[in-house]
Amino acid sequence: MTGLSDWETGKPYETPISQVFFPLLAFLFLLSGFVAASTFSVIKAKTSLILELSSAIPASLSLGFGTLFLFMAKTKEMVV
Q1: For the range 73-80, what are the long-range contacts, defined as Cβ-Cβ under 8 Å and sequence gap of 24 or more?
Q2: Phi and psi dihedrals of 11, rounded to 5?
Q3: What is the pTM of this model?
Q4: pLDDT of res. 65
Q5: Which tops the pLDDT comparison, 8 or 70?
Q6: How far is the C-alpha of 47 from the C-alpha of 41, rounded, in Å?
Q7: Helices 22-41 and 49-78, axial angle in degrees (round to 10)
Q8: Transmembrane residues, as ranges (predicted)?
Q9: How many other β-carbons are positioned within 10 Å of the β-carbon of residue 66?
Q10: Are 66 and 30 contacting, i.e. CB atoms less than 8 angstroms apart?
Q11: In this structure, are residues 79 and 70 in contact, taking their beta carbons and an 8 Å threshold?
Q12: Which residues have CB under 8 Å from 65's CB, separation 6+?
């Protein structure tokens, strides 16, 4: 099917990940984000920028995706 025929038939979008797993994914991402953020916070001040970024970037991404999945898990329960 083409995109236009999908649009005309009104086929709804289906997520590649089942909505049942959103709370679990939120917990795992937030947990890994907090662990990575804690390792970032204990790095000494006079370390290399690469070492700091290798800890800060995964922490930021994990906390961001964890928050996203947390919001999607909460809206799933509200919207029926």
Answers
A1: 73/19, 73/22, 73/23, 73/26, 76/19, 76/22
A2: -70, 125
A3: 0.74
A4: 97
A5: 70
A6: 12
A7: 150
A8: 20-43, 50-73
A9: 20
A10: yes
A11: no
A12: 25, 29
Q: H or E element: which one contains 31? A: helix 22-41
The tens digit of pLDDT for each residue in 17-67 reads 888 899 999 999 999 999 999 988 887 777 888 888 888 899 999 999 999
Cα-to-chain-centroid distance, residue 75: 15
User: Residue 46, SS3?
Assistant: coil
User: Could you tell me how far CA 3 lies from the centroid of its own chain?
Assistant: 28
Q: What per-residue confidence (pLDDT) applies to 62?
A: 97
Count CA within 13 A, CB hemisphere, residue 73.
Answer: 14
- What is the C-alpha separation between 65 and 55, in angstroms, rounded? 16
The tokens of 65 are what? 């995706």
